[in-house]
Amino acid sequence: QVHLVESGGGLVQPGGSLRLSCAASASAFSIIFMGWYRQAPGKQRELVASISGGSITNYADAVKGRFTISRDNAKNMVYLQMNSLKPEDTAVYYCHSGGSWGQGTQVTVSN
Fold this sequence. Notes:
Layout: E1 3-7, E2 10-12, E3 18-25, E4 34-39, E5 46-51, E6 57-59, E7 67-72, E8 77-82, E9 91-97, E10 100-101, E11 105-109
Parallel strand pairs: 2-11
Antiparallel strand pairs: 1-3, 3-8, 4-5, 4-9, 5-6, 7-8, 9-10, 9-11
């Protein structure tokens, strides 16, 4: 079981940036597949980005070119750098790995 804690959400204007962090308590973190998901009100949870133990990344079409997922295996951390944010990026963002979910962090993009 992996324990995950997200941080870094907040309110930002359209075009702004945020960086989300996910702290994971797990052995052999460096080989663990990690993902960021989001869920907007009234919508299903969707995959935003993922990163393998070998740092192979994958992105949803809606965020390609704007979001970057990365990991720091020495710190057991995964990050999601979000640039050029749009109102439609507003959602609760969750870190996920091995069947475990974090508590989520709210991202609101609005004037």
